[in-house]
Sequence to fold (665 residues):
Amino acid sequence: MEKKGKKDRRDFINTCFRFAAGASLVGVTGVLAHKTISGNTLWQIDTTKCTQCGRCATSCVVTPSAVKCIHVYDMCGYCDLCGGYLRPNVKNITTGAENQLCPTGAIKRKYIEDPFFEYEIIEDLCIGCGKCVKGCGAFGNGSLQLQVSHDICVNCNQCAIARDCPSDAFSRVPADEPYKFSGFKKEKKG
Amino acid sequence: MSKKHTNIFLLTLAVVIAISIFVSWLRYDPVQDFTTSVPGLDNRPKAGNEAVDEVNIGENFKFYIEHTSNLTGKWTQFRGGEFDNISKGKIKLVDKIGPKPKIMWQHDLGEGHAAPVVYNGKVYLLDYDEVKKADALRCFSLESGEEIWKRSYKVHVKRNHGMSRTIPAINDKYLVSMGPRCHVMCVNPESGDFLWGLDLVKEYQSEIPFWYTGQCPTIDNNVAIIAPGGRALLIGIDCETGKVLWETPNPNGWKMSHSSVMPMVLDGKRMWVYAAVGGICGISAEGNDLGQMLWKTKDFSPSVVAPSPLIFGDGKIFMTAGYGAGGALFQVKKIGQNYQVETLQKYKPKDGMASEQQTPIIYNGRMFTILPKDAGAMRNQFVCADPDDCKKILWTSGKTDRFGLGPYLIADGKFFILKDNGELTIARASTEKFELLDKVKLIDGHDAWGPMVITDGRLLMRDSKHMLCIDLRAN
Fold:
């Protein structure tokens, strides 16, 4: 004899399918709504994780790399003996090529007043090797930092540098906050 | 036109085109857009064009209060009376400071890294007065922190990773200081009376090092020992009169570094060891050859030298520097009437003991330091090594206890290590392992690089803008 109120198997499966369909609809709507609210995302480097391994220069699908050195002027000590500009242990502190750390001469140095010098990154020449960033971090205030330049980055679904990055420093960031450099002002510096 | 003429025309045309292409190829300069990186592109002015301002050393004096003290503790110069950075006080110090440090007093200072000396209850510090733009030699009471007197002189110093960065030298009768722009001043430590002054740039053509000088003077038998670089590598000045008693010639033009002159005794012979920008040398400190160079080496000559030579006592000297220089171990030997120096070890910072600013400590047959930022996986760790093999690190403070460019010293069998942000770590002074006792944030500061002093149970420490006195007495 059939018990009163007990569902048969057919009703149970129907109910399950209805719930699943409803949950899927809500889920898809939620994801779309979240994407609409949060907008697009872009690849960026977390400067606190970056170890300046040099792979940004070679792994990027764009040539030269979309990763560039930026200069956070607020943090710069404007040193004459700049660890980001000069090779370690240089004997003469001049703009001579033999004294420069950057392999492409992408850092321009300008006298301000004794004993301060200003350093400017020439983005077209920068290949994102990070040598200057390493030097600045080791001996200076760390005002030179590597960042993905969104003017150049093609925003691949799977970033080739992120895949090769040994310190997991690449992540997606909201498009309305595209840079992650350390410093006092959160705006991109030339 | 006949076929023959057509062929001649086409041939001529081909030759002309070929010649044109060849000439164009010859004339094309593939590197025409290149710019050459040559010295002078930064528009640095030529040396000697700077305006020289007149400095009247010791011109101003202010006396605030009378002061007497029963305290007898002494920290008479950079690294203390025996140049070893070990406090010899007998007072038992706390193992743990706890959450509420006993801050006895605190003073605002000009930005910098200058540190004090202490003599019989008085604290002496060469500060920089940013408002009056003056080097200011200030005397405080160790017990109360009250300012007793101040002697100052106007000198323009720009902010450049701090302004002040030296430690005076003191004995019963004399107090000698050196300002950031190489102005040497000698005063009476009791009264603050001005005795004499010397401008090393003017008198010795000294070149002020990057970020101003960090060299700390020393006093030996009432003779002030200073390393000007420039016209003389080392000089001895009579503290009574200010008269220069002897000068060491500087034929190689070695320059002043941030390093300070350290004493060494080898086979009974006293000498001064100085690490200049250019090389390291030993200079006779006594006898008929007083002031003469006994030995020198150019085997370790980075462009910036901040730590001072570490003397091991058996003729071995350890030298280190930052900015990728690493470390080097030398052996000085007397052979016949001459001295010879041999390089035993020389290596990069990731391969052994190295330091960027502070001078390592020798204690119980072991050497201790904080490795610099470019020391690889052990960067910024407090480490111990055997002085016979500076490349062999015996133990480290580990990944969780990293430090910066701050100072460290030994007192009452404990290491006191200060981090850049004002956090003080106390660890057992063990040669076996890093044994953490306490870690406490004493000040919410930055660039706490000035050397510390512990005497009479009190710790004197600073960050870039403040000096604190903390009671460390256990009872």
